[in-house]
Each structure stands twice: as structure tokens, then as C-alpha cells.
Amino acid sequence: SSAGVAAAFTYYCMANSIESVTVKGLVYDGSDSTVEYWNAVRTGGSWYAVDTVKYNQGNKAYLMAGSATQVVTGESPERFSTTHVADLELSEPNGLNAPSLNRTEYPYPDDTPFLEKYGGWIILVLIIAIAAVFMVKAAKGDE
Fold it and tell me: What are 50's strand-pairing partners?
């Protein structure tokens, strides 16, 4: 169930010193809604949403999503905050509130390997340098 998966994810985060809470709410799929659970994770001073159930179903947008992250594509694109609404009836009587999510998704660092990122530029510079050397040698050979 989404409750069990979200609780397990919360415990996993706690064991790794990551601030996380389980959020209960309504998840809208078209005109239907169901009660489901997801997580809010805090990193870098901002909260991001993680819906591990949706992520495991193949939609990568549900990992570290912001409130405006587009999670449903196709005919009617939807944002995370539109498809996932925290259940206020549960949170208000207990003094609990789901944290406010950052607007955009988590900015993952660029982990492209150095040569893949700059290899084309390195080859271009080498070709220009070799051409320049040949041109200088050719110019000196004519004198």
C-alpha cells in the first residue's frame, strides 16, 4: 500500500539523517481521487515531494518534485500540487501541516563525465592548434 511504502521511505530517510515526513492526502487521476500517502523530504533548506509508488510505476517526475513540477503529460498536463492535495482534515486537528514544497523540482548537480561534457571542445582546440603549427611551419619554410 502507499501508506506502507511512504512509511518505509520515511524510516529510510530518518536512518540516513534526512528530514522527511509522510503526507496523507488525495491523489487525483483524471476526475477520480483516491486516498494515498507520499513523502516530503527536506534538503538544502527546501521541501520536495517524493511519491515512491508513482516513481516505481515509471514516472521519474515524482522523485524530488516541486509544487509546479509537471507530473502528468499528454492531453492534460498537470502539476504535482494539482494531482496531490494534502488531507487537511487529518492535519489541522492534530496541529500537523504538510510542509510547503519548493516551487520547482530539486536541482540535481550535473554529473556528466568531463570528457563527455568537454570532449568536443578539446578536440576542436587540438585541431586548431595543429593547423596553426602547420601554418607557421609552412610560412617559415617559404622564407
Answer: 39, 63
